[in-house]
Amino acid sequence: MPLNEESDMDFAEFVRRLSTLLRVEFPDDVNPYDSLYADLGLDSFQAFEMLIIIEGLADCMVPPLEVPEIYTLNDAYAYYQHLRDAELAES
Prior knowledge:
Layout: H1 11-22, H2 44-57, H3 73-90
Helix pairs in contact: 2-3
């Protein structure tokens, strides 16, 4: 079962879902260019978990062969959109 009920979400909804699933409280004034590490305080384990969560949110059946470089919330959202577009193109 996918992690999301709605397969396409805007940035604000993506951040809300990511925060909930990571069990990390992001500040109210979060912006797309906040660093996942310096600004939001994620550690390497949470970063790995975040990749798995994003793949689930995008209904990605087969994860990419390469680990993407994700430094900001905007990078994370772009990765989600990329996976969603790839999954939609395959269906």
